[in-house]
Amino acid sequence: MKDLSIERNSAVSRGHVDLIGAGPGDPDLLTVKALRLIQTADVVVFDRLVSPEIMALIPAHVQRIDVGKLPRCHKVPQEDINAMLVDLASQGLRVARLKGGDPLIFGRGSEEAAICRAAGVSCDYVPGITSAQGAASSTGVPLTHRGLATGVRYVTGHRARDASLDLDWASLANVETTLVVYMGVSNIAEIAEKLMVHGMPADLPVLAIASATTPRETRVVSCLAGIAAAVEQAAPEAPVLFIIGHVVSLLDECSLLQDALGGVLTHA
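The structure corresponding to this sequence follows.
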């Protein structure tokens, strides 16, 4: 008969990786499971978009490794992050891979999981509230609303290695659907232009929200034709999320919205 205790101990020695969504930034929106795992991990490998309020919840004795990326500045390439996760787990460590938002929505969580599993390292996903949901709850702008939006679509406004945006613009330019653009601040002028070329009205309201749900939250409201200039003028600090559609008319500051659509409304 096999010695099952040896098999179990061998599995434990391989460690484990939890791919954890930290949510949009407010620590109160962190899931109970995510909080438990980052407080019991041996090491936390974290991204730039994880808020300082959430980082403060990690015990002082837990090792922290910063692998955050900036536009055109990836101090730790993705391939190195993948190898790091495998190496740490192979040392028998419990690794909390902490990401802003949700690890399976533009978070490359599935890529990291595939590498870990191919190397024989066990891993689990821990969902987080994605930035679009956080922005909606913070501002009062719903992602869907009867009579205004029958659906919602999430797209990325940035491609790896600054490749061109090859989105299905004709499909995205649907005024009956709310369009949420992640990581689009550097390309918002092109995005707005392509959407208008494919039929979206120039006066469609747009909300840009930076650092949603945190004390640093900043909002910029304009129309589709003016959002690029409005964001350039306000210069909100990344991360910035764009909500495009009629639902923006339900913004908490709706009494000021008409003025904003003629210019710029900023709110911090």
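The chain has two domains: 4-126, 131-267.
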